[in-house]
Amino acid sequence: MSQNNTDQFFKSTVLGHPAGLFVLFFTEMWERFSFYGMRSLLILFLTTSFIDGGWGWTRENASALFGSYVGLVYLSTMLGGYFADKVIGFRWAVVVGAVLMTLGHASMAVETEFSIYLGLVLLVFGNGFFKPNMTSIISEMYKDRPEKKDGAYTLFYMGVNAGAFFGILLCGYLGEKVGWSYGFGLAGIFMFFGMLQFWLSQNIFGDIGLKPNKESKAKAEALDLDKRNPFSPLQLVAIAFSSIVALLWLLNDPASKISGGKINLFSFLGSEGNSIAIVSALIVFIILLIYRFTQYSKITKEKLIAVTFFAFLTIFFWAIFEQSPNSLTIFASDYTDRILVGNWSVIFLVVNSLITILPLIIITWVLILLFKQTFKYYAVANIILSISFIILWAIAIWMLTKDYYTAGYLSLSDSTLERLKIEKVATALTEVPATWFSTLNSLFIISLAPLFSKWWESKYNPSANLKYGIGMGLLALGMACVAFGANGIEPGAKTASVSMIWLILVYLFHTMGELCISPVGLSYVSKLVPARMIAFMFGVWYLAVAIGMKGAGMFGENIDKIANEHGLSYFFWMLTIISILVALFSIGMSPVIKKLMHGVK
């Protein structure tokens, strides 16, 4: 029996998947470590007072900059996807992105005004080159095994969240407890390790992701029998207009607020210039998108409409889910009782030790499995990966040692404290870092991802619309928890002492919702989109995510206004209602979208 051209990747497997998937797993893990580690600190750094080393910004200004930053991060994937497809290939795009991000984190660690802004710019472009092309490599590896894609993306997503967990846990801890520059700098170190590991292991991917040449382009065109739809000059002008205006809006929105109106690129349009500009860009883009859909063959057109529908739902998901580093972090910092004493202190220390050490053991076990399959072929890459894990273990153990000492459960001599760079304390105290709650999302992902992966591969696998409906419903349930917990906070209150249980429940339900939507959404893009459009359409998908991210920032900008007038609970109830409406809309559209997907499950 003849083999298909991707069977080579399945000859050497780890947990039933190609070893190459786990090279991507660890590369993405270190990239997400750096991204989420820095992101967890950004709002806190911007809003912390000058005395405590921050910039002393208002929550509105901090949320505006945060929303534009994360929006630009995902918008830049359009650029990265194009260059990878047409010019440099997936592999070089990943390396270029990793280098830019390493430099970006290093720049932020300097902590001057110029270096912080420069670092954010480098991180935006670095993510643009890196992010869409990792998933594009997976799509190519599994193009002849569509039934394995959901499981592969869910395992890959487990790697994403392993990096996010340790990034938030360790960078957040160092940033809050030691110094902001330590948190920003640590993020860059692990990004550098990820880049080296990927580059030295790249031959494991065969011909996937190499720089495009005439032969590869001709082969791709021969396999693609779909109707071509080149851009006309007028369409290119429309794309340029929408892109430039959207980019300027993302930059101008925080700049105009931070400068108090002194900087405003759209002031010539009047007092509502920002709104007029972005609405105009969206209208032009939507008209262009509708027209282009009419130019494809019937089946391709309908599949692309289905992808666009899911992208539309994704906007709402991320706009609400991404309150984690924004309004939920503010809630954890200012409105949650994070001081623990007595038995509660002991319970937290034990739990925190377990959720730190056990995931490290699991991921180290996966690392060992990968070593068994690849060490003799990629020894240097595996050694670098080992060094990065030794450093990770060392920092984690140092953090736990410091926590037990400051809580009064561990005695250390002055010389030991000096060697470990731990400050001596006079009063025993356990204070949970505000960023710690964000680690729960990644912890629950690591715990629950295998269960959801098995569910998607079973006969009980729900339809795409039902998955989205369940996901948005769980999102609503999480927001309802924090809304209920905030019920007793009076309008205008700047501090409170709400129980931590509400935030823990939020992250549990939101994690289950994320598993229903995020990795599954990426899988449907790869299933529904023609091969020649895959990297670009992943870019379009991330465009929807970018809109959602900026939406999250815009929600966060208004938290003080709403809380002052109606109370903080009102803000979270609003997000709950929006989630419920989107869930019902997704389920109600099931028959229509099922037809448009043409049998894709």
Short description:
Keywords: Cell membrane, Membrane, Peptide transport, Protein transport, Transmembrane, Transmembrane helix, Transport. With 601 residues, this protein is an all-alpha fold.
Alpha carbon gap, first and last residue: 27 Å
What's the Cα radius of gyration?
A: 24 Å
Shape: globular
- In what range is the share of β-strand residues? under 5%
- Multimer state: single chain
Helix content: over 70%
Class by alpha and beta content: mainly alpha
Any low-confidence stretches, pLDDT <50, length ≥5?
Answer: none
Organism: Flavobacterium plantiphilum
Pfam family, one: PTR2
Subcellular location: Cell membrane; Membrane
Protein name: Oligopeptide:H+ symporter
List keywords for this structure.
Oligopeptide:H+ symporter, 21 helices, transmembrane helix, single chain, two-stranded antiparallel sheet, 601 residues, transport, 1% strand, transmembrane
